[in-house]
Fold these 4 entries.
Entry 1:
Amino acid sequence: MSDPALYEYPSPLAGYEHLPSLPDEKASDGKSYVNPQTEVLSEAYEKFVDPIDKGKRGGFDIHIYFYQKNEFQKTFAHALWTRIRHEFPELRIYRIWDEPLGPHPIAMFEVNVFTPTQFGAFVAWLVINRGPLSALVHPNTDEEERDHTQRATWLGERMPLDMSMFKKMREAREKLEKVKQEQEMQKEA
């Protein structure tokens, strides 16, 4: 996981600062709290919050990992992949990679979800049906390194990702930006 101090975090209460204090009343279970009802559901039930992608890239990637030399896991992963394609045909499901790819250290396949409803249904289903496999769940924003680290959630065992490609991509973007700035300065001169 990346260092949380590398990022800025807006206040979770932004936009809610002027609401009345919440009651201390307990619900009938004696443990949880009674929340004031608003008759309006959060928009997060219908669309992903910013800055999560709402377009064709998909809001979240779910990478499901297996050890490619472990025959049981490999067989299970192929069966799970087939089941997901049958049960969730509306999701985007990629091929099975039988070797490491990009930052992913072992074999895996990827599933993309596009709506909060798909996310809730698929991730809840995967929690129960992933068997011995681990899964990385991450949002898609314009901060890929952060998406794969600080914003990532794991089901099962966490896998160490090879983050070097993100560093190389960041360095290339910075170099390109520097070249663009130099070109702009030359135009102005």
Entry 2:
Amino acid sequence: MVYCGKLSKACLPCGGRKLRCDLRPNACTQCTRAQLTCSGYRDTDALRLRDESSAVQKRLHAKRATEEAIPPSLPVSIRSQARDIFYHNYVDGATKPFDFLRIYYPSLRKHEHLNRCLDAVALAYLNSQRRSSSAEDEARQHYVSAIAYTSAALQSPNQAKQDSTILAVLLLDLYEKITNKEPAFHAAWAAHLSGALTLVKLRGDQQFNKPSIVRMLMRLSTNCLISCVASGMPVSSDLVVLRNTLVARFLEPADPKWRESDLMIEFAGLRQAIEDGVLSDNDAILSLVDLDAKFVRLGMEVPPTWQYQTVQVDPKSSHHYGSVHYIHPAEHVAQMWNTLRLTRILLNELIRSRCLGHQSSRKPSPALAPIYQSATTAIEEMASDICASLPQYIEDTPPSLLEAFTETGSSAVTSDVRNCVSGAGQPDPAHHHLPCYRFIFPLYVAAQSSAVPTSLWKWVIKQLRFMADYHAIENAMSVAKILESGQKPKIWNVYAMLGSYAFVC
């Protein structure tokens, strides 16, 4: 039973007109004046309680049904999460290494082999970032399925020549690099890339008809080149033909990254010749010095849009090795410069090694001493430059410095630089994860050299430990421990351990 509150005794006409009823016997005054028939007065004792139980129950059940029909949040499948994070970092991120994948997203259902390859690599990437056992298990399952579907596509003369098939092979290669846990390169690593080059050769000239295809072939070319340099394998003739075709038809030969990649091919060939004993020590030194001069010239001739700003630091933070740090207009610019710097370190270490030759004193001869000292100075400068480029990406960059660069620099600061600054001036660990990760290898190359001072070695270890603690980058701690232990693994084995170009583009 439900209590309905205090009721009025007024007649119905007065109640409907919201007038005060005087309750006169026979007929109230208000009805008499209005010449209305007075309906009489209600018995309030009889009306005070009434049974509303069924109505209340009906309203309650209706409310519960509504709440159950609309859950507080809709669950997002791990596959959807994986695709989103992969798209953000590889297709639409700062460096966009797979931006050409964007046009294939709407039609993935039409290319099942590509669809499954994308799921495999996206889940593998999600696992690398979040250490999710379910993502790892699903990634393996999708990879096995992707291999089967891609193999079937390669058996078809028509499908083998489609853009989606080359892209699927590139994604399978990326999966291998992301999931690699071995600190070494081996021949199987290049299997997918070799297959992709064979498909390019099979397709002929008609493949160069869309910008997205050109971007895909540029990515294939870059990945093949990095694999050759890192593994010590010779650059194949098919890769040389592809690069020459891209330059002749679509690319500007003066592009800094492309010029740098040409010099990397020269470096790979020269290093192989030295290891094979084709060159004498003197010839090797002359060739290495000449190649180093080409890298120096490249650094001097970069266009304004590829230049960085040098900022004096006072006071220094724990993330500053020297009294300056560099502000780059975009992350790909920082990557180009650090690739140049670390390659010069490796070049000049070879020069130092050839200068020492087989002398037991481990000192260069008087004739080679100036070259040895010049190589030592170059290593110290390049290592310091790598350290100076880190503060922009390891933590926060004050907005005032960004504005200063926009005013004094020759190009506007792009969004990936501005995103390094959060609203309250606090660093955002999620945003800095990948940029920091890409610095691990250059920092390692700088710190492992015997030519750098102990202070730089200690500073690099401190930065790597910060990345591990603050940004939860496990491999940063692994590399820090390698440096602390005094071990001297092959440099490119560390690169392989870090995931090669899957992360360190």
Entry 3:
Amino acid sequence: MGEDSRNDSSRVVSSTKELHSGSCITNNSKACRLYTPSSDPPPTRFAVKCHRRADEVCTELDAFFARHWPWENERAREKFLAADTNRWTCWALPLARDDRILDAVKVNTLLFLLDDVVENMSVKEGKAFYKRLIPIAHGKVLPDRTDPYEWITYDVWAEMRAVDEALTEVTFEGALLCVNAQVDEGRNSCIGMGSLLKQRYKEGGVGFVAAAMRYAMDLKVTVEALDTIHAISESYSKLGIIVNDIYSFAKELRAWNTNGKEGAQILNMVMLQANETGISWEAAKRVLWILCREWELEHIDMVTRRETAAEGCDEDLKVYMKGLEYVLGGNEIWSAYTQRYHEQN
């Protein structure tokens, strides 16, 4: 056997050993690690910060909702408190004004709770439920003070209007889009990632949260200015939706298996990715995490280019774009620990 043949054989043996140890050999003979699945997502680049009044506000509103919300039973009330639901907004809106953070937390938690109620209803029941509450929320109909769904909904929105009617109306429009989409029969016809993202944008509440942020921070961003960051808003929407879907998937699946009603359907990016590619749910989550991190890079680049654009960028718009990043970072950190998505027996 010649020298070249012996060298080739030696390289094959070496390559085989490295493959078994988790390494590979590239064309230029440099070793690299093989892909190893991990349940830990790559870290986000978005900053994370909690509102300085978080403990005070959460203590007050935990007590309020624990006492007044019509819980199905004591276990449901305890699950709400264990989930740290009120703190979500404190993570998402760390730059909110001190005198508006309580309103912002309260309205976000209200939508969380209403979503849970509708999750256990058929589409027909959900439509009837929201048809009753929407005019009350809009201040067009007075509530039945013996019905907690009605008077809490009325009071939350009335208190916000008393502070800032214009920004409250914008926030209400975002909430209206969200709750109507949750009971939209057309949601069952979503095919592919594009159509599902559009539907989840409506029912996932990302537009509502962006509007609530402007209320909480008292930002006067014009419609014209918002039009100039349409791509950034879409990017924020996609990132928020997919991170939410990754973390909430197990909860949605449990609810469907336990209480699935006629006309109801799980609309979640994890299930879509798994069904379209034939991979497992856990593998689908890993793929979606990589997609999120790639979109983060594009998002940051778009924000940088908008801030330095020749047309100029006023301070409110800059703060608004930074606020969107805080929403994304805050949503991710809360979603990673909340018992809402990580239920303990």
Entry 4:
Amino acid sequence: MSKTVVINSAAQFKSLLSSSTVVVTDFHADWCGPCKAIAPVYEQLSAKLSRPKKLTFVKVDVDKQQEIAQTYGITAMPTFMIFKDKAVVTTIRGADPKQLSEVVQKLAREAESSGSGFEASGSDSDSWHGAELPRGYKDITDEIEIRGLDLLNADSEYAPARMLFNATKPSGRKSLEETEGKGKGAASEGSPTPDWIESDTDQQLMLFIPFMANLKVHTLQITSLPPKPTADSEGADEFPMRPKTINVYSNRAHVLGFDEAEDIPATQSITLSERDWDEKTGTAKVELRFVKFQSVNSLVVFIVDGHGESEKVRIDRIRVIGESGDKRDPGKLEKVGED
């Protein structure tokens, strides 16, 4: 009998990520020839290396489980993602039996020798945290209700809102040097669809983030990787900026309009300086007043302006850090507290 688990729902997949230290995931499709070609290799690895609650092999049909595929930005099949403690540590795109075997077997050997954690393996590691987690707290981004996200004033040429919460390393971090000097942060010719968002008509963005549980939110890690204009770049004012002023509203029932947000006091307003952005990762830690974010079922993040004179603001990733809470009753979000 096969030891590989076939994923039938997003809830099942989330449960497995929580119950198994490492989860090796095969994102495939029935119509994909390369997926079928590498399937026997994957089954052999599963049969040989599976360990209950330690190392689990799963298969996700991207046509049947579109929500999962969208959450992790799957655009090519097969894609193999390896999760450790619910975070992506390695991604392999394409049917490469040798690379898949080497990466998985290396992880298994590390587990056997150390008896504990795994390290990201191979040059294609896509695990992404732009900053260290505060002591005592964890990444709770997987508690976001992806289907309920709403984003206002985003340029449609760039990624949808869900990509902000993708667990993979942003492409801007990988190819920042390649995009410098090309203006507007656009991907170079022939490159994949951009995996970041940019504002459209001005520098403001309004993002609604609903959660599947009532959470304690400690920090937002915001990654922004705009290209840096050079001395001979044309139209330098068209280069996107990093966020500067951010207003955060808790427990709203829906996204706020821009005029509406101006009339409602924010739960917290933050002004980031240039020094707040880590130059290596392009990430700023937005530390919230924890006492005000103790039972949060949604956040509205209002990017008011950016650093510079451009009319564009860019965001690549957002990670939510805090503590998990009780599952909320499904249905309409209810406002908590005074307006």
